[in-house]
Amino acid sequence: MLINRRTFLYATGVLAVAPKISVAQLKDTYYEVLLRHTKWAETQYDATAKRYRRTDFGFAVVLGNAVLLTRGTYDAALAGVEKDVLRDHTLATIKHFAASNVLAGGTEWGKTLFWDTTFQSYFVLAARLLWPDLDPRTRANVEAIARGQADYTTSLGTANDPRSGSWTPNGLTGGHRGDTKLEEMGVYAQALAPGLAWHGDGPGWREAFGRWSRNEAGLPAADLANPSTVDGTPISANTATNLHDTFIVENHGSFGPHYQEELWRTSGRNAVHFLLAGRPLPEVLTKQPNGELLWRTILATMSDAGEPLMPMVNDREHLYGRDVIPLAFRSTVLRDPMAARSEAALASRLLAYQAHPPVHRLAKFSGEAKYEPEARAELAISYLLHELRPPAKPVSEAEFFTRAAITIDHGADPGLLTHQSAAAWAGTVTKPGFTKLAWQPSHDDWLFKISGSTPMLLPPVAVTGRTTVAYQKIRDGFDATASLLRFADGFAGTATLPTGTIVCALPRPGRVDVHNLALTGILTGARTYTGSAGRVTVQAREGFRVDELTFPATTARHVRMVGVTPHPTYGYSLFDFEVGQGTTTASSFDPGYEPAKATDGDPATRWAVARAERGRADSWIAVDLGTATTVQRVRLRWETAAAVAYRIETSTDGATWTSVASYPRADLSTPGWLDVDGRAGFVARSAEPITVRGDTITVPAGLVEGYVRADLRKIAAEPAPQCPPGVSASAADGFLSLFNLSGADVTGTVRLRGTRLYRGTQVTTRDGTEYALSLPAATARVEAPWFTARGIPAGVTAVVHNAQRVTFRGGPAMFVLVHRDGRSLPVALGRGERTVSMPLVTPFPINDLALGRVTFPNSVLPPGMSDPGAAVDGSERTAWTPGRDGRMVVDLGDAYNVTTSLKWTNGVPPPHTVTYSLDGKTYGSALPARYVAVSTRWRPGHASLRSVVVRA
């Protein structure tokens, strides 16, 4: 089925927003996208050689071709090539590269694990789809490739592939800091799958496949706690450490969701071989050790487009064609309704994405050249997975983000404190080189630029100290995060709230870059900004930026551009610096990109700063006009490395310089508040304005609040809390966010408007309260507005012990205490002290370190065992059934001196013991401990475990 009229209108821009598609339409959408992509695929065809190119594995387009040739209704107009011609190109290519593969006796490609085997997997699959059309010799060569690769990979044991250079899985030990070996172990497993699927079990193949697959997401603390068997082997036999202990994956020195998804990307490539061959899937493809805890981290960063947000990745964001297959695998093979929602969201954008220049491509905006044939192949596999396995029914988008809501502090090493709420995503990033408060209102994949080294709100300098709190609803009554970051020259504070709002205490102005493209069906090509000073619409810039600056006429011999803020990655580079003829010099240049190339009149040549100088702010390029000349205009045509900010200076002698113009000039400068396209906005508690310059927003130093679709004018009119020196506070959305921006403990009073009551002591005033503050050095915290006191007079002291109990003194007084959940309680206060408890509410925060924590076994449970998480979910209606001799482990996240108590359901508890561990490997009675284990000799008829309560 080709796209209907409505979808066509979206893709051509008559309608502005990408349509939602149903799961039933996914396969048809993938087919059409493959058809349209064929116009790009045919650019890889070498008419002289009569086959697709070897360069960047361009010949891998044959898999997409094979799907189009053997499935669906082929449309030559959309594909740009007749079906018979496509068949001829494809068969000739398969014949050639089957013969030229090293494993079939050729010399051109193949056998090398990194990265030839990925393309071998695609290639073998394409050949199998077209098997009846292949000649006997080509079939024999394809069989030799699959068998030979399995034999070769098995022969390596756990050693490195000598053909692959420095690429290594590090044996079965793996590695997780900086660059995970999850991907490398996946490649070893992937190299074995075609042989196993199409030729059965060769000598050692299945054992090797299982060993590499089970260890891909290996983490000893989790694996040693899991006696479950997968393909007959206990998970506890795993030896690899490929993840951080918060189930986050690093690659290229930073958190990489793209690589975290590699577990399901390689699984998708592998599973399709078995399914097409009619063989049962190896159990490890459906029972993946630690797979669900890895997925939990992906959900904690997921966008509304089905692609994880990537705050520390420079070159994998918006790589839509390659993001489909992990979701398709989880949706079809694992039957995951959350993945089904993400896949439908991503697929809904594919046609609009594909229509944007460069047209027809599936891996634009980022990535390597080989990603394009990979994206085609993986979309083809996604099509096949949907053909071979019915997908799960997706949850709604609202339910998705409600279920995905979580706060996780991944620690100082990964450098990420993250908060996924129903309304927004936020992450405080402290990894060197990536410092930012990344905020994406409405989970909008195309609103703010947050990827890689792009700075956002926080200063892009090294964090020298970090204190954080991750609040969780199950234990604290609300989800939020708070952090206080120390820099060499000061502090910054951040808080994220359950409403999606963020709060920043900034030591210097903060920067926010806005996506602004004419990406029909996804982005309209303009952004509208509104503030108290007015409204402005900024049109999207297409192509390289051109700046034309005019200024009052001045006499000068020398004119120069002096950088103020460089491109965050590449510094400065100019195709043209038009001011007049003369000698051109610069502060530095890269070989081949000399200064004169910016003034030579050739639009294809350019000047670029030296690589070592890319991070330097004040790089310059200057023209000596030879004699005093009247100048009043300059024109600068930038390459990708365009200055964020710079100034134009003139001089008569080349020694003394005068600034005559600067870039950018503000499109809008507005005090107090700024709305961004009706989607989000900022309120600045500062006398300095918020400015918009092109696609960059600058907020002033001080306290800044970010809101998702709110009445900003009204919020900005509300007075900010009054704080002691060194402290900043916000009452955004009723929550009290507190920041001690100093190296000393602070006590004092925070003056607030209104009658909200927070945990701690406060005294009512005529128009608010005075909150007694005690805040340790360089820390931050968030307090929930548990109560309001309706009709309470001034002079009453309220001590909020928790979300249930309050002590009042300072009467007599009559008022109504209203709980955050809407319950109310009349209070009659005499001259003495009175403590009241709100009935039927939970007394948050709960002193139980086990609540909501990760438990093991996870992802794969032993026979007869229910999910151990039921013992730490805070519910009286759930319980953990251990199964025969079952054992569970609770990960407290950090080491504590603890006491543990157990609560069983009615009946006889099984014999049991409680032991402790610091490392998750050895257990005993010693404290402190991070891991708490409950071991049982459970038999049918014994009670189940209602709760594990662990107190510090």
From TrEMBL:
This is F5/8 type C domain-containing protein. PROSITE patterns: FA58C_3 (PS50022). Residues 556-660 form the F5/8 type C domain. It comes from Lentzea pudingi. It holds the Pfam family F5_F8_type_C. The lineage of its organism: Bacteria, Bacillati, Actinomycetota, Actinomycetes, Pseudonocardiales. It comes from the Bacteria. Gene3D superfamilies: Galactose-binding domain-like (2.60.120.260). InterPro entries: FA58C (IPR000421), Galactose-bd-like_sf (IPR008979). SUPFAM superfamilies: Galactose-binding domain-like. Residues 865-884 are annotated as: Disordered.
